[in-house]
Amino acid sequence: MEGLFYLLAGAVFLFSLVVRRKLSSTYQKWGRTRNRANITGAQTSMAILEANDMRRVRIGQIRGKLKDHYDPRNKTIRLSDPVYEVPSVAAMAVAAHETGHAIQDKVDYAPLEIRTFLAPVAAAGARFGLPAAIVGSFLGTPTLVLVGLLAYAGALLLQLLTLPVEFNASKRAMRQLEKLGVMGKEERKGVREVLRAAAMTYGAGAASSAGYVIYLLIIGGNALLRRPALASPPLKPPPALF
Hints:
By secondary structure, the chain is mainly alpha-helical. It is built from seven helices and three strands. A three-stranded mixed β-sheet has the order 1-3-2. The two termini are 21 Å apart.
């Protein structure tokens, strides 16, 4: 049974590697291509916010690369340096995507609200679920193993919920950029490629978490089906998928 896990782990690793390289090459290509409107990511977000009468949403800058996100708690769009201050096609795409999340928040898009509400719990599950299952197996405590399994599975469910949220934000981004009239044929192609490559990373993340859940189900299941005295050997942490 463990052989199945390693087979899945290898497939996930290869998929993740391809996704990361695709995202990197796509972002580099369109990050060097100036958009015809000559607007930065910050200006893109600002234009979309103004067009949707959302002037209360703030735009901030964050150090690093590909750390862009929208924080619904304080209504702030945070753009990384290459997006905030560069007038590239990639910057325009990423900024529009994050502003799409702000629009989701404005219209009370249910999947976003659910994800925001469950995010702290899921983060705790992702952090402590695997250690709990391992400790439970070591101590011969099926209940603790089950708690660990459920906690980590909950984190996976949140990642699966993230997929429609991200796809919807990308659709809104394309729609808003079309309304602003800032895309020519080449920009439209670049924006689609950037958004598609970014969306694939979320799929890779969900696949990685699914691999760990399968590992816990295959190996930790023995501890659930046996009495503590007859429990199988303690769980070993699964190998890194990335």
